[in-house]
Write a structure and sequence with these properties.
340 residues, six-stranded mixed beta sheet, alpha/beta, binds beta-D-fucofuranose, single chain, seven-stranded parallel beta sheet
Length: 340
């Protein structure tokens, strides 16, 4: 993968032409110059606008694309990290359009505000594949397809798990005081997980959602928000971290406050992503349950591109398979096998 600089147009020039003028080293007639890189003109050029590098999940997702979209596999990847700012993604997409890439892959930070830029991509004839998070747009034809997780299902699963667990513990009648560390507000992963959990929350009269606040999917903010919750609410029974890194921050805050968590502690911890470090933390007794979200989307997107290259139509909405883990399970093998 190459990390591209910002804001330049495409210099898609025949490399042969260049070298014949300058007398530089040999290149095949099929090479083209892409900014300062020599690219095989047969390569499929893909621009990926990534959310940022805020979590373990995100790192694994980036690596999955880097490992899939290689020159050995016939691709040239332009990668842009938006540092969790939508304006950076808008800029990146416009640059991809200027550079006349073959495909744009977008992991949209938030759901709204995409109509204009996606229309520009469509007008330029560049298919846009959404990954992970999704968008809300007037016209669904503005993107080719989406591949990612069923976030609402994940949230609902967490609620169902908690309901069963409390039943097993003989606590179905007790008042259960819950706080939520939400992901980046208006991201589809935050919206889905929050709404999914709420579906179960609304059926449980004894559950009380004390407060929900965003920790922006980062460990540092997760800790900060949890410190605030602990200072504000004397009695907290359940913490929901809408991703593992916020959960890690919350666990640090809980321990620093002299409290305990996990199956043998004061506070029940539910989390999302199920990255390896979280499974280790669960094995160590700090997390009760974790709802998996698979970041390894690169190969799936490559398959989609192959289909499109062969003129096939692809399914508009493509979910990936996921499971969950809890502290009653034997986690040793899962930790060993975990790819992220
Ligand atoms: O849970 C989190 C990341 O959108 C599913 O974003 C993704 C979330 C994931 O920062 O760790």
């Amino acid at each position: 993968m190459r990390k591209k600089g910002t804001g330049f147009g495409l210099f898609l020039l025949a490399f042969l032409l260049l070298t014949s003028c300058t007398g530089e080293e040999n290149a095949s007639e099929d090479s083209v110059l892409y900014e300062d890189e020599v690219v095989d003109s047969e390569d499929i050029v893909v621009g990926y606008s990534q959310v940022g590098s805020e979590s373990d999940w995100r790192t694994a997702n980036t690596e999955s694309f880097e490992q899939t979209f290689t020159e050995a596999n016939g691709y040239f990847l332009l990668f842009e990290d938006a540092q969790q700012k939508q304006e950076n993604q808008l800029k990146a997409i416009r640059n991809f359009i200027l550079q006349e890439v073959d495909y744009i892959i977008l992991d949209p930070i938030v759901e709204t505000g995409w109509d204009a830029v996606l229309q520009e991509a469509k007008d330029a004839g560049i298919p846009v594949i959404l990954v992970d998070r999704t968008v809300k747009v007037e016209d669904e034809d503005l993107y080719t397809c989406w591949v990612g997780s069923d976030f609402t299902r994940e949230g609902e699963q967490a609620g169902e798990w908690l309901k069963n667990y409390l039943e097993q513990q003989g606590r179905s009648e007790e008042e259960i005081r819950i706080v939520t560390l939400q992901g980046t507000l208006d991201s589809s992963s935050q919206i889905g997980r929050t709404q999914g959990f709420q579906k179960v929350l609304h059926t449980q009269d004894n559950w009380l959602m004390l407060e929900s606040q965003s920790g922006d999917f980062t460990q540092a903010k997760g800790r900060e928000v949890m410190e605030y919750f602990l200072n504000t609410y004397e009695d907290i029974d359940v913490v929901i971290g809408e991703n593992d890194n916020m959960t890690f921050g919350a666990i640090d805050a809980i321990k620093a406050a002299g409290k305990t968590c996990g199956p043998n502690g004061d506070i029940i911890i539910l989390s999302f992503d199920a990255v390896r470090a979280a499974l280790v933390s669960m094995k160590n007794g700090d997390i009760n349950a974790d709802f998996e979200c698979n970041p390894l989307l690169g190969p799936r997107v490559a398959e989609i591109i192959e289909q499109l290259e062969h003129g096939e139509t692809v399914d508009k909405i493509q979910y990936v398979e996921e499971t969950y883990f809890d502290s009653s399970m034997d986690l040793k093998e899962s930790i060993k096998e975990r790819a992220y």
